[in-house]
Amino acid sequence: MNAKNGWFEQSNLRVILLFSIACSFIYLDSSNQKYFKNTKAVINDVIAHTSFIITWPIKEALNIPNYVIHIATLKKENEQISILQEEKQKLIADNNFLRQESQKIQKFIQEEKIYQDEVILAKVILKANTITASSMTINKGAGDGLKIGNPVVKNNNLIGQIEEVNYKSSRVKLLNDINSNIPVVIGELLTQAIFSGDPSSKSKFNIQYLPKNFRLNNGDSIYTSDIDGILKKGILVGTVSDVKYDESTKKQTYSINFNYNPYQTDYVSVFIN
Amino acid sequence: MNKRKKDYYELLGITLVLLSIWSNTILAQFSLNLNLYKFSNITYVLIYFFTFHNYKYFSFTSMFVIGLISDSISGIPFGTSSIAYMVIYRIAVFQETIKLRTVFLSEWVALGSALFIAYAIVLIMLFLSGRSFDILIHTYNFIGSFALYPFIWFILKFLLSKYNQRITND
User: Fold this and answer.
1) What burial class does residue A70 get, using C-beta atoms within 10 Å of its C-beta: 0-12 exposed, 13-18 middle, 19+ buried?
2) A157 strand-pairing partners
3) Searching chain B, which residue's CA lies closest to the CA of residue A58?
């Protein structure tokens, strides 16, 4: 085996050297050393974009059956859309009330534009779901104004938080990551708690630091809280379901429902303010 | 022509290892929420298999680089996977050198020891870098990877022998 490789591979020096480099990388990475951080940002950018370019044709090839199904159903969808548009036009033309409503909606849309200005749209270029981390990489970085801690959303549903910012890419720590801890408010009383990833539990999430004797209800919405000063308040995290209370152990089990699966999301928005 | 095909054959090992690292991205649209990642680490098993079966592009340097790619994608401290991959590679080389490959059981037991050391190193590194981890999931993952090896061994041996046969016939 070794005969095939060069002198470096045959020398014992390589073992010591490569292990030392790997150990020093871990040390420098953990201690947030400034120069190493910059070098790592460049390496991360190169790996993220190269991986995206390499995996893109494979993903597209695997997606061909979906495209075929989509094309086959496209004609029907178009017909349905045109029927709906005709109905809409008739209703608008006949009803003054609807016209006023339409004006209100247009005003609302204009207000939404102001809201959209705080947001950056990003494409998901890599996804990782391992026992050590659950994350995704997006194609926007420090150059686009992203900072560590920025919330990442999909139609105002929280998906994760920016964990690491490179120059042209960023890593998003997903909600189910074991290191993810999000301050939230729950239910009608807006009870404060910490929403954390817990891969070993059935629901894969854990709601911590709830007040004693606090009982969750089915359908309770979970929203982000701005208590830590990093997250924007009022972003929907999920809704509580399947709540079961065990009287003997005084413990409650629950599931969390999400509107989006982050692993099937191609585009996300990042709040930058 | 034969030489070129032989090179493709040699590249297959490293390509499969890289694909296993990128598998989450590639297979995301087929996600069935089965969380299979919890129960095995295919990258470790593939590295062991291809190193043990003497594939050309497996070396300390390539393990180091692949480890950095893996760490960069998953976001754990740089160098953690590199150490784990290099340990698995070193044990596989040792096993291959002492010619135990004719006995599958020895190969499998050696994989167990390689995996145990690799998982222990990853856990120590995660602990030292202050990151949270779940020992139970790592244990499941270790057992799963160990149990998965005979299946992967059989499938790869079968497919590679068929492929090799075709090259020889050409």
Assistant:
1) exposed
2) A154, A236
3) B26
Q: Tens-digit pLDDT profile for chain B (170 aa)?
A: 455 556 677 788 889 999 998 887 787 766 655 566 678 889 999 999 999 887 878 888 899 999 999 999 988 888 899 999 999 999 888 888 876 556 788 888 889 999 999 999 999 988 988 888 888 889 999 999 999 999 999 998 888 888 777 767 66
- Do the chains contact at B83 and A22, CB–CB below 8 Å? yes
Q: Where are the domains of chain A?
A: 64-116, 181-257
Closest CA to A260 of A184, A171, A155, A120: A155
- ipTM entry: 0.85
DSSP A109: H
User: Do the chains contact at B25 and A5, CB–CB below 8 Å?
Assistant: no
Of B41, B48, B71, the closest CA to residue B140 belongs to B41
CB contact under 8 A, A26 and B80: yes
Q: pTM of the full predicted structure? A: 0.81
Phi and psi angles of residue A161, each rounded to the nearest 5 degrees, phi first = -130, 150
Identify all chain B residues contacting A128, using CB atoms and an 8 Å cutoff. Answer: 24-25, 73-75
In CATH terms, the fold of domain A181-257 is Thrombin, subunit H (2.40.10)
Closest-CA residue to A18 (of B89, B76, B12): B89
Listed by number, the residues of chain B in 42-101 with a beta carbon closer than 8 Å to a beta carbon of chain A are 51, 54, 56, 59-61, 64, 67-69, 72-80, 82-83, 86, 90, 93, 96-97
CB contact at 8 A, B131 and A179: yes
Does any CB of chain B come closer than 8 Å to the CB of residue A8? Answer: yes
A66 close to B (CB below 8 A): yes
Mean pLDDT confidence for A240-244: 85
- Residue A26 near chain B (CB below 8 Å): yes
